Amino acid sequence: MGGIDYTRICFVIMPFGKKTVGDRDVDFNDIYDRIFHPAISAVKLPEGGMLEPRRTDKDFFAGDIKQDMFEYLEYSRFALADISGLNFNVAYELGTRHRARESGTAIFRQTLAPLPFDISSIKAFPYEYQPENNAEQARALITRVLTESLVMNRKDSPVQIALAQQAKSGNLDTVLQEAENCIRNQDWPGAMDVYRKAIAIEPRNPLPRMKLGLLCRDRGIWDEALEQFSAASEAMKTYGEAFREKGVVENKIAQTQKRPLDTDPAPGEPALRRAVELNDKDFDAYASLGGVLKRAKRYADALKCYERSAEVSGGHPYPLLNALSLRAQLNGRVGLSPAEQRALARAERVRETQTKQAPPYDAPWSFFDLAQIRLFRGDVPGFLTAAKAGVDASEHDWQPKTFLDSLRLLLPASKELPGLEQGIAELEKQLA
Q1: Which of 108, 126, 155 is the last residue before a domain boundary?
Q2: Range of the structural domain that residue 32 is part of
Q3: Which positions ≥6 away from 354 have C-beta within 8 Å?
Q4: I want to staple 296 with a disulfide (CB 3.0 to 4.6 A). Which of 38, 174, 266, 270 is the partner?
Q5: What predicted TM-score, i.e. pTM, was given to this entire model?
Q6: Three-class SS of residue 370?
């Protein structure tokens, strides 16, 4: 292995040169030199010394660069993957790394870059590289994630986790592959039936239960979703994602049954608190807990959760917008800071790009977020247009009603937000 001490190496999996991400051209060589290299170099190893960044085009070996790449993927202590732009080579190398190592891999993406379905359940940390204050935050985020990952040494490879579960429970490869083929063909009922078959073969395997639960959740089949998430969290008591989804569905069932949401604890709250306890960097869990507490009218506690989610996610639009709504409800004003105005401008670019994809990414929420961002930025026609598009893109009545509830929280600050009352009135008319 050429005398390289791979126990000190962080191999960077990323595009080279200039590539298109969203609606802009990105110089990935500059990102490596200015963001990744210094951030990785600042990581202290648990046993002493510092982590060393490597990228194959930066190492001038006499041998075959492909051989060097495979050795880095196989042996490096850590690997950082940037999936921005959905580059084929990056996806190939990331898959190779996940097959090779059960831990020591972290995924990052620029906030303009959506996740493909195949890895949408895998944690990918969002970052921005410009202007310089964003670059500074990105370096700090990368250093913190790598440092904590090295100390915790948790399994982060979905390939290794799945294979370990199958090794314990018998070979489910054929059945699970059949389900994945159904998903790629968008045969959702077929995929659900196959996952039910897998569960019948091995009830204690949390993987097919989690997959089935997500398919049920996305189609509003709440009771079966809850059954699967509960069983997955029971089978693997450290499965933070299962606890997160369990809490979300418990709260959704309480809503559909019109049960009280302002109990203590609120429906779904214990499972979501367990999720953030298991993974303090799961911004989805913090945002979901914020939603539960908001519906329980514990606005101050909800605001803290949304602020933590926005911090961990690097300014994701969903927790940011909810934090601003709750601030308006609690303080009677929004009072955007310059930093928040810049964050909203970035979020507007992200959500607008996602709504223009075919089909729109994360609909209807991308439309609703875009509408609220435009409301905060004083674009009344843009607010009304995006809100209507969100209603049209909704598959369930509860989706636009959730957005309408968020807008009503802003009413104490309506003087700052021209168009708010008009938008609420039009949505109420559409949903009547």
Answers
A1: 155
A2: 6-155
A3: 114, 360, 361, 362, 366
A4: 266
A5: 0.63
A6: helix
